[in-house]
Amino acid sequence: MRRNWWRWVVGVLVVLAIFFPSTAWMHQRITQYKSNYKTPLNPTIMVPGSSASQNRFDSLITQLRQETKVAHSVLKVKVAENGQLSYTGSIRRGDNQPFIVIAFENNRDGYENINKQARWLNVAFKDLVKTYHFNHFSALGHSNGGLILSLFLEKYFAQTPRVDIDRLMTIATPYNMESNSTTEQTAILKELIAGRRQLPKKLTVYSVAGTENYSSDGTVPANSVNQGKYVFQNQVAHYTQITVTGDNTTHSDLPQNRQIVLLIRQYLLQENLPAKERAQNQADTKRRSITGETGLP
Amino acid sequence: MTGKRVPLRGLWRLNQRIEQWRAIRAIKEALRVAYPFILVMTLIDVVGQGVLTKSGFFFQIYHVGSWLPGLEIWRQLFQVISLVINGIVAVMVAFTTGHYLARTYRGDALAVGVMSALAFLTLNVNYDALNVPMRGNGEDIPQFMENNLGPQGIFLAIVVGLLVGWFGCHLMNWLGKWALKHPHWGQLSWTSRVAWPLVVILTITVGIGYGLSWLNDGGLNGLVYQGLSAMVTNPGHRGLMILAVTAINNGLWWLGLIGPVSLAGNSSVTSLQNLAYAVQHGSGWNAPNPITLHTLGDAYANFGGAGMTLALLLAIWIGSKQASYRRVANQTFLPNLVNLNEPTLLGLPLLYNPLLLIPFIVAPAVNIVVAWCAITWKLVPPIVYPVPRTTPGPLIAYLGTGGDWRALLLSLVCLALSVAIYLPFVRLANLAGGDEHAA
């Protein structure tokens, strides 16, 4: 009888010793699944620069659609000054790589305005996440759009902790505004550098510069684009600078520059480019170095 | 015995009759000899698979990786032992089956046993490897289809053992008589009495094996498994189909065709869809695929492995008076806890045991129906989170639903039901008390 009693105690102890650790393990695993899980919906958010409307990327998108043979659907969002959102277009059902263009009614240049636009971007972004339930995305910013995105990532992105950003590509983004100086920092650069610790650690950043001559794309000084390294380098997972020269490299032509379209496909959309086009891209890079183009420092 | 027991009486008589068959007796003896080896192997596997591998249940819940020193060495040691025994268990069964059958024919048992082991091996030679020159750099294709020599191959081993045992004995006897009739050919030595049948049998099996190698890559065993897997792996969403597949699968286990369908549903497309849904919505309620082989069979009808053998062990503890049954139950409880039930199947033996075939198929089927109703009536959510293969049966549903108490309750109900289904058959086996099973 006494032996039986002991057996029961041992049995109950064994059950408890399995049950409670396994419950704890289960909760831990579920949180892990939740944090690792990526929705199939993986939009690319595009932000145009100053003075540009939500239609700024139309020719780029047409080009991407033609080349990739994928009918990426497009949703355009315009944020009014009071934070009101107006949508045009839609995300087609089943399209997991849509483009979302976010533009602002007040699209003027300047430190104050860019900060406001970052706040408005946050308003639109939260609404998009709530509507479409994606938990990761990539972003493309042209000109000041890159500044708006960077500011947004530093100041507001933490408000949506369940969403991750995979890749950010900025095209001709003047991190130091119109300044050509390599030593003086404008207000916006100071702000970006001060808040860089808030940038997501797993982010991959590509900064693309175009140059008409050796110092500028006609609007933005190459030195200003280069200052991005003080924001991203040693903070995000990868930071890559790319310079594109040749035809169509004036500031406003850059988004539909063939080379840049290829870069977007290869790096931002992570397509497997056909060998022919990849070779073309590489040949171009090589040619650049042969002609003695000074690479970025 | 009351009138209610009459059908069981009939079953008992059938059982007694079948047990008289020479082939069944040989199989039982063969499995009895193989049992201790399988038991040791499985106990080692319990530690190896449950505690030491990364996907093991105990490895995960006790975080073994973070405190056990020399983990890699432990893993390798356990793997070596497990490989050696696990790798050739079917060869052993082929030998013992042939051996015992030959003994009943009063033939040369040892020689016939070795013959059937060799015949079984020739059926599992990897003919692809013969065309490739040896390179000796460790990248050679294995000479044998190693999978087929493990528990997977037990059915084929039994068949080969029986056929070779019968044919070899008769051939040897006939040779002996023939030599007596024709004395001018000289005295037939023991060597040639073994050598000639061996040549004949190996010629036949090599011919079969070589012919099959043109058909597919897995040998005869691979052919059987391929056919079965194609039939049973994708039962879709329909409850009846799942029921039929599980029943067929368990029937095959009973024949020694171990494992055409295994607890591999964690990674199927439907399971991944369910997981994606649960991660987004916080629970498995309304998951897109509530009724699958995984959510029904793996969660509620696989405690201890195919056929709810964990319930069989409990039924034995409750109702069996047979010392051998109780002994096997005690010895194999731990492996059953982590869903490795091969030693139970071979030890009782459950394979080719007509008494236990009925509950072995009925108990999981009943559980599937119960779970099916519970899930369709939204009493429990389906399991959505992956669980390790070595998770103790009654915990699978609880952990897989993310800690739903109703799922745990349903698991316990299923376990109790299965015990109740096994119990009368286990009690029936008590009648054999005076037989060879007596302690």
TrEMBL record, chain A:
Keywords: Hydrolase. Residues 275-297 are annotated as: Disordered. The keyword Transmembrane helix does not apply. One of its GO terms (molecular function) is hydrolase activity. Pfam families: DUF915. It comes from the Bacteria. SUPFAM superfamilies: alpha/beta-Hydrolases. This is Alpha/beta hydrolase.
Automatic annotation (TrEMBL), chain B:
It is found in: Cell membrane. Residues 1-425 form the PTS EIIC type-3 domain. Pfam families: PTS_EIIC. Its main location: membrane. PROSITE patterns: PTS_EIIC_TYPE_3. The chain crosses the membrane at residues 33-53, 73-97, 109-127, 154-175, 195-215, 299-318, 355-377, 405-425. It comes from the Bacteria. PANTHER family: PTHR33989, PTS SYSTEM N,N'-DIACETYLCHITOBIOSE-SPECIFIC EIIC COMPONENT (PTHR33989:SF4). This is Permease IIC component. The phosphoenolpyruvate-dependent sugar phosphotransferase system (PTS), a major carbohydrate active -transport system, catalyzes the phosphorylation of incoming sugar substrates concomitant with their translocation across the cell membrane. The keyword Lipid metabolism does not apply. It is a multi-pass membrane protein. It comes from Levilactobacillus angrenensis.
